[in-house]
Amino acid sequence: MSETPSARGYGWGLQADYLTQKSLSAGAIKEIVCMDQNFADFEPQTSNDEDWSHPNINSPTDEWIETQNFRVSHSIPAFSQMLGELLYINGSYAVATPGGGSSSKAHTFKPTDPTVTRQDKAVTYCETTGPGWNILAPSCVADGWVLKGNGKGVLTADFNLIGSGKLNLAPSTTWYPTGTPHVARRTGQHKLFNSQVALVVTDAGSPTTYGCRYRSFEFAYRKTMLDDAGMSPGCGNFLVAGDPTSGMVRSAHEFDKQMLDFTLQVDMAVGSPEAIAVQQQKPLLVVMTAAGGIIEGAIRHQVKVTVPVAKYKTSKPTVGDGIMQFAITGKALFDFATNKLFEVELINDVTNYASAF
């Protein structure tokens, strides 16, 4: 019987530390609902003796594995609950109960303070597509995320996971419809839509609420990763424990730089204030909020991105939906007053992301 894309499945589980794989038990891995049909890329890094001296032989005679590499990219619907897992593995975290709430929680995410650690949280990643493909990769970290909204659709998020190089091509991972599978299915997920977005940009204390002028947004948080530094020869970590010929794998995977860029699409206004902000390089406060359905009382599912100090890089006229618009690109600057590059607040019904997946 042929397998179809509907058979594909993905999941992750939070690890206690970078090196310790998540133990497989019923529901230990949480399903990742993906919009793409991507699967993992893994490739050993090899070397050979092509440039060594071999009298009268102009081809390599030997090749060997030095390191193992693993990477996967996904696009997901920005479910209120699932989005928090992606944010959690990319930075620092705090949780509180919003005023008037009980089952609702307000989760706050910021970039990790590099003076505390450069090692963000790791997950054990799984994927399958029918009986022909079932893999498990421990020690995967994210190099950021891209959150975006456009048109009438749901908000979405893109991300990459980079593994240590360890990969199990025949794990015991079980999936639905197996009874009590290792990978728990997602239920009760709440979607957020671009039509729920409110964009406010404040210049020197004077806010501009875009309202009907707003069209689309994209916030891209990126970390440059110290890929080679984690390949530490002295640690003796290999794809197959105790077998140095199987290829070295990472013992850690830390980040170096952190940056946030953004793109906004808005209808053109009289006086072109966005172009003036580019020309004068004004510091701006950017706040994007998407508020969805009610959790309890007046408390709604919500994501709120705050960039305390932003500067526009470009603001170019463009045509969208048959009308003139501005396509704005910008970047975040670290704000010493609030001690952050940016902040994301997520309100939903998840109790605590430290134990949510």
Could you characterize what this model shows?
It is a single chain. By secondary structure, this protein is mainly beta. It has one domain. The protein contains two helices and 21 strands. It has helices spanning 80-88, 273-280; strands at 8-14, 29-31, 41-48, 63-77, 91-96, 105-111, 123-129, 134-142, 144-150, 156-162, 183-184, 197-203, 206-209, 214-225, 238-240, 243-248, 255-267, 284-296, 299-320, 323-332, 343-348. The strands form two sheets. It has a 19-stranded mixed sheet that branches. The protein has a two-stranded antiparallel sheet with strand order 15-16. The protein is globular, with a radius of gyration of 23 Å. The mean pLDDT is 96.
Q: Quick check: average pLDDT?
A: 96
The string of secondary-structure elements, in order, is: EEEEHEEEEEEEEEEEEEHEEEE
Shape: globular
Q: Which stretches are poorly predicted, pLDDT < 50 over at least 5 residues?
A: none
Number of domains: 1
- Total beta-strand segments: 21
Q: Level of helix content?
A: under 10%
Give the radius of gyration: 23 Å
| CA(first)-CA(last) distance | 33 Å
List the helices and strands and how they pair.
Layout: E1 8-14, E2 29-31, E3 41-48, E4 63-77, H1 80-88, E5 91-96, E6 105-111, E7 123-129, E8 134-142, E9 144-150, E10 156-162, E11 183-184, E12 197-203, E13 206-209, E14 214-225, E15 238-240, E16 243-248, E17 255-267, H2 273-280, E18 284-296, E19 299-320, E20 323-332, E21 343-348
